[in-house]
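go over this chain:
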Amino acid sequence: MAKRTKQSTKTRVADVCDALKQIASLGLAQDWDNVGLLAGDDSAVVRRLLLCIDLTPAVVEEAIRTKCQFVMAYHPPIFKPISRLVASSSGADASIFRCIANGIAIYSMHTALDCAAGGTNDVLASLCNLIDTEPIEYTTLGPSKCKLAVFVPQPDADKVANAMFLAGAGDIADYQKCSFASRGEGTFQGAETTNPAVGKAGRFERVAELRLETVVPQSKLPNAVVALCDAHPYEEPAFDIYPLKREPVRGIGCVGRFKKPTTLGALAARLKKMLPAECTLMVGDSGTKLSRGIVCVGSAGSLPFKLDLQDSDVIVTGEIRHHDALSIRRRGCSAIALSHWASERPALAKLANMLGDLLPVLEISLSKADCDPFSRV
């Protein structure tokens, strides 16, 4: 256990959660995942934290024995809805019940850590000696936004803009009241029943207008539209709404080239020696020369097949399905399966260091009870 100098300020569950989110934003997680604080009291004090891949009964016993108040379990122990929490159960609910009963908070990072800088895929890629890496598939971060563009007479532009800003539009990072205006000419002809702010009903009009545009979070769009209409001088303001694509920031998986030439057999032997990978499997001929590595911790699934796989490519993952292995052979490339747990476990040491830098008051340890469910015969 890495003990750190104690400080007078108490660290609470919410503080640990904030630090973990700083390391791996929950917005990076896949849509199907269940990440973040799964059980616990935000205001509870944390002195000892335990890191593991799986929240098994043995890990829970270890957490209780070592007086931990917080467990970061990489795999979410709560994934599907739970109908009951019973201590005597043989399922995962028993472990969750025991943690709650002993005041232990449970947090999961899973695919958020897979995408994060210095996360599971980056750690395994580094162990493979890969450089110039990039994600297999990019993901996005941050709330969905729209661009709201309105056409308004020039004298009224500031009034309409300020109304939209007060309703939540115009924020870009640390900047507020952001907008752009371009000059043009608007035309219209109202029916005899209208009461136009400019010109007369039934007459064709030309008006010097500005196209005023700004960004607005999807959640604040209805209020921004209402504010726009209330501040606009026209009976029927003309405006457009454009959905914006979020900027791709990080992604799932990792692709890079090898820093030094290697073969499939040499890479498999090296990883088996460096990692707790007792059940390593290999797809391909050991003498195959490699130039590019494709890393996907856990279960690779179909993700690597989105790439144009070449003969000198190797997929490094935790587990590979039988038919995927056959597909890899047909494509002429190679693969190494380290076991699901073994491919993910190395990231915990890196995580402990990053978390320790953010919260030096905590005593952080890697679970000794956490282990691969498979063993070598």
Observations:
- Residues 13-112+346-366 form a domain with the Udp-n-acetylmuramoylalanyl-d-glutamate--2,6- Diaminopimelate Ligase; Chain: A, domain 1 fold (CATH 3.40.1390.30).
